[in-house]
Design a protein that fits this description.
Elements (H helix, E strand, L loop, with lengths): L6 H15 L4 H23 L12
Length: about 60
């Protein structure tokens, strides 16, 4: 997917991002993206688990 992207292209993309969003907002955006990816990954993992697992809670 990103075979043609090399260092100069990445630097240009980074420079454009800094100009558009400013250096102060980029860490917040990256943090939010990381949280979103973590949640997405957890949801995918939860979907992979079998639905017919027996309930192991014996408190009832």
């Amino acid at each position: 997917m990103f075979e043609g992207v090399r260092a100069p292209e990445l630097l240009l993309i980074l420079l454009i991002a800094v100009l558009l969003f400013g250096g102060k907002r980029l860490p917040d955006a990256a943090r939010g993206l990381g949280r979103s990816l973590r949640i997405f990954k957890a949801e995918l993992k939860a979907d992979d688990e079998p639905k017919d697992k027996p309930d192991t809670d014996k408190t009832a």
